[in-house]
Amino acid sequence: DTAVSQTPKYLVTQMGNDKSIKCEQNLGHDTMYWYKQDSKKFLKIMFSYNNKELIINETVPNRFSPKSPDKAHLNLHINSLELGDSAVYFCASSKWEVAGGVQFFGPGTRLTVL
Amino acid sequence: TQLLEQSPQFLSIQEGENLTVYCNSSSVFSSLQWYRQEPGEGPVLLVTVVTGGEVKKLKRLTFQFGDARKDSSLHITAAQTGDTGLYLCAGGGVGETSGSRLTFGEGTQLTVNP
Hints:
- The structure holds two protein chains of two kinds.
- By secondary structure, chain A is mainly beta.
- Chain A has a single domain, classed as Immunoglobulins (Immunoglobulin-like, Sandwich).
- Chain A is 0% helix and 55% strand.
- Chain A has strands at 4-7, 10-13, 19-25, 31-37, 43-50, 53-57, 64-70, 73-78, 87-94, 104-105, 109-113.
- Chain B contains no helices and eleven strands.
- Chain B is globular and about 45 Å long.
- By secondary structure, chain B is mainly beta.
- At the A-B interface, strand 5, strand 9 and strand 10 of A face strand 4, strand 5 and strand 9 of B.
């Protein structure tokens, strides 16, 4: 069974459109994350949720809105897509640990904005 | 803001050679994790080190956490083509306010040629 799954794997869309990426984990973790990996492979935290509560919100445009319907799901909705949003988006999950828990990553969603 | 600098950014070697990747910071981390990412996939944990001066071995890979918990290194002995990938170090924050957050380094792209 896949531990952390994301859909879709690839997303190609036009500038200005709205799109969503879904993430589910079956590891029983209480914390979930969204990361953006740019073309230089730098992995940047965007959001983190613990028990459905937003705990990390980096400097991300408010066009990006995460939603956590329950502890096992964290979806990412993006409004008015821009060219600079093209990247690979990774969902991850972990147990909540003060020292930084081991994170399990999904396979990524490659978003291309044309 | 805690930052982790990895070096080198790119490394291309021949099979059988040894190599070391470095991860440095001016900040103290509660733990240091190393991940490996292959094309089209999410990062996968290799090891976690938590004690200053700790050394862990995983077959041909040796991981060390600096005494002051500000730096780490990954040494690979007799590299194989299967070691090719992006290696990421990630530091766990210190203190309750850091939560379960990890700070990722910029990554080292390793290519092992046959």
